[in-house]
Amino acid sequence: MNTVRQSHILALLISSLLGGVAYAQAPGLHAGTLDTAKIEQLTGAKGKLDTAENVFKVTVPRSDLAVSVAGVKMTAATGYTSWAGFSPAGDKTMVMGDMVLQEDQINPVMSTALENGIEVTALHNHFLWDTPKVMFMHIGGTGDAENLATGIGKVFAKIKETSNGKTKPKPKSFDTAKTSLDPKPIETIIGSPVEKAGEVYKVTIGRTTQMDGHTVGKTMGVNTWAVFAGSNDKAIVEGDFAVLESELQGVLKALRGADITITTIHNHMIRESPRIVFLHYWGEGSVNDLAKAFKAALDTQSKA
């Protein structure tokens, strides 16, 4: 009897130990290893492994920038270093990072990211009173490690290619107070009413979310809008898209595909559900082309 009982206890112990090993080896955020040499090769940047968090971070200091903030001369170490961190995520790899960009670099670099499987998650400033003006574009993605590293490498290459003011827009003279465009094509293309606001024309499309147990909508600022100004052939459009997180990448791709400039991506609220992200934009061209670009971006939201 004692022999049978001892055998039973031994079996339970072995089962428990094996179960513990299986649990310890179950894939999770830090499971797996990273081919750090391959990541450096594909990104073209040197990195450092944080063994505690199993994150390999590559960095590209923007030592080419001579930035001052409120008259204080800054260096790359004071927050002007582009970076991307890679971490195993189950059977995939996660990347997150921040790109340091001059204003004229933002949209070429953003297009490169979007075209190569890298998500753009935020675009904003980190400083005030900086000269030249510098913006920060946050990126992310989850997928195959080599594909992500290749995409990040192309982003870094585009930053280098567009540095030193190589893509500065040509200056234009424009007075929105002298707007003469016909708003009817805007209504026809977009399918929403156009209001005259001063000397310009505005389209506003509302949506709703919940905040602190209450519904908030169009008039409280949860809306997408576009202001059109100028003439039929020479016009500008500027405004704001209110998007769900799942809609952001599609709207960005549609706008950039139509050569619309993205100027900011950020939140306006906290505690809202569903979460709303706001992206601001600017475009130049004919009224028809600008209205079509706006409509194409709107249409992606219904498909997200």
Summarize the structure in words.
The protein is of the alpha+beta class and 304 residues long. It has 2 domains: 36-162, 2-Layer Sandwich (Yope Regulator, Chain: A), CATH 3.30.1460; 183-302, Alpha-Beta Plaits, CATH 3.30.70. It is built from 7 helices and 18 strands. The strands form 4 sheets. The protein has a 6-stranded antiparallel β-sheet with strand order 1-2-5-6-9-7. Strand 14 (223-230) and strand 15 form a beta hairpin. The termini are far apart. The model is unreliable at 9-31 (pLDDT under 50).
Give the tags.
single chain; 304 residues; alpha+beta; Yope Regulator, Chain: A; Alpha-Beta Plaits; 2 domains; six-stranded antiparallel sheet; 7 helices; 18 strands; globular
Write a brief caption for the model.
This protein is an alpha+beta fold and 304 residues long. 30% of the residues lie in helices and 35% in strands. It has helices at residues 2-24, 36-43, 106-115, 145-161, 184-190, 248-257, 287-303, and strands spanning 47-50, 55-61, 68-69, 72-73, 81-89, 92-102, 119-124, 130-131, 134-143, 195-197, 200-206, 209-211, 214-216, 223-230, 235-244, 261-266, 272-273, 276-285.
